[in-house]
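Q: What structure does this chain adopt?
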Amino acid sequence: MRLLPTLLAGMVLLVAILLLSNRSLQHDLNIVGLQRDTLTVQLQQREQLITALNQQMRQREQAELALREDLSTANQVMQNREKQRQRSLHENLQTRQWAGTGLPDDISRLHQRPAFSSASDYLRWLSTGQLMPDTDQQTRNK
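A:
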C-alpha cells in the first residue's frame, strides 16, 4: 500500500514538472511568434524600400538617358554651327580677316583673373580691381 501513495506523489510531481515545462514552452512560443511577426514586418519594410529604390534607379536611368540624348543633340548642333562658321570663314574674306584680329587689350584683360581658393578671396580681388576706362577715351587698338 505504501507504493500507491509514493507512486501518486511521483505522478503529481511529474505532472507539476510537465505543467511548468509546458508554461515555459508556451512562453518561448509566444516570444518566437512575436519575433516572427517583427521579422515579417521588417521584411515587408525592406521589400517596400527595395521596390522604391528600384523605381528611383529606373527613373535615374531614364533621366540619364534623356541627358545623354540632349548632350548628343547639343553636340550635333555645336558641330553644325562650327561647320557653318568654318564655311563662312572660308567663303568671305572680310569675315576671315575680322576673325583673325585680336581683341583690344582692355577686353583681353577682362578674361584674366587669378585662381581663387574661396569666395572671400574673389570678393577681395573684386574690391581691389582696377576701374574700367572711361568710354569717352579713345582705345589704344583703334
